[in-house]
Amino acid sequence: MTYVGRQGLPVRRGGSPETPRVTDRDGRKPEPGGPPPPGCIVAVPVRNEVDRIAACLRALATQEGIGEGALGVVLFLNNCTDGTAEAVAALAPSLRLPLRVIERDFAGAQAGWARREAMEAAAAWLDESPSETAPDGVILTTDADSRVPPDWVARNLTALAQGADAIAGTIALDAAEAARLPDALHARGRLEGAYEAALIALEAWIDPVAHDPWPRHATRSGATLAVRLSAYRAAGGMPAIPLGEDRAFVAALLAADARVRHAPDIVVVTSGRLDGRAPGGAADTMRRRCEAPESPCDPRLEPLWRALFRFAWRRRLRRLHAAGRLDRTGLWAPWLRIGADAARRIAALPTLGARLAAIEVQSPLLAPRPLRPGALPRHIRGAHRLLAGLRHGAQSRQVLRGLRPGKTRPALGQASEPASHA
């Protein structure tokens, strides 16, 4: 196990740098010409997780479908006071994977800062490979209270190999902890999940994205992210913000025109506790919803008509960009109630992703208006009716194409098959 600071500088418990030193798991200096750095590094921010860190590390140490020595792990232990560091030191010799541990005490620590420090250390490790021979390295991140499946790394690498620059997986609550949560919270979660799934399917119909096809999801959680090193740097790295750093990071990737895949087959089990480590994080959100059942939903869960308006305008803006006409602000800015000066500033942005993000910020018609739980059933029914109509329309067009002159009429069974992805 190696104890290092950023850029290979070891740190004392108080955080001050010492003389540069890098050692292997047994505490010895690595010999020159030793094994090359891993091509994939998992960055894990940790704060007071003595009861959960072993399960997290064992899950990472038993990854399947990747080559030996292909995976390394960075643990960033910040302000740990519960024996987490000692637990890691005791467990490390049995893990049989490269492990670097950074310990830092910092009064201004918060979730985004800790994840950024962990991912920056992972990026520095990848940089140790000779640039002329090493392929683009991959940084993955998860949480210390999460357990990744045995094929987590392999699935992420497969998705990246299919053309994506970054992969967002989805999460499932630990079953034992979820069983202790109130029934009302589960009921709300089912409603929110149903509406979100319907909106995702509608978005895929209206504004399809080639590199992120349906089926997909909308989760952007630090419990399961993977990104190419080049895309990580192009996006400016993980934002060091107190809350929502994972969502902000994906937004930064999209603003840089990175191809982000929301892969539904990558699922990580994470804690369902109500006493989380990050103020304002998932645990606080669940607790707040227990205390205030009608608190607003996630901003993405907006009224159906607003979601359709958003999807349709996003499609139009993409098409204007593809035609080289997005600079003609009169084609979109007045309709979205964006002033001429703001529209010119948006048109001057360097990427389509940055333009789309700025338009959604500037337009009052695209401002988030989250629903409250009581309104979800009505909007779910509307979304399902619309999806049924779209499916029927697609099937009808398939039948009509089959009835064109010179074509043989299709059998009833053929016409009845699903014709699309929703």
Description:
With 422 residues, the chain is α/β, with parallel strands linked by helices. It folds into 3 domains: 2-181 and 215-276, Spore Coat Polysaccharide Biosynthesis Protein SpsA, Chain A; 304-366, no CATH class; 373-415, no CATH class. The chain contains 14 helices and 9 strands. It has helices at 53-61, 84-91, 111-126, 152-161, 175-178, 183-206, 229-234, 245-255, 282-291, 304-322, 340-347, 352-362, 376-402, 412-415, and strands spanning 2-3, 40-46, 71-78, 99-104, 138-141, 146-147, 166-173, 225-228, 260-270. It has a 9-stranded mixed β-sheet, sandwiched between helices. α6 (183-206) runs parallel beside α10. The longest helix has 27 residues, at 376-402. Residues 5-30 and 407-422 have low confidence and may be disordered.
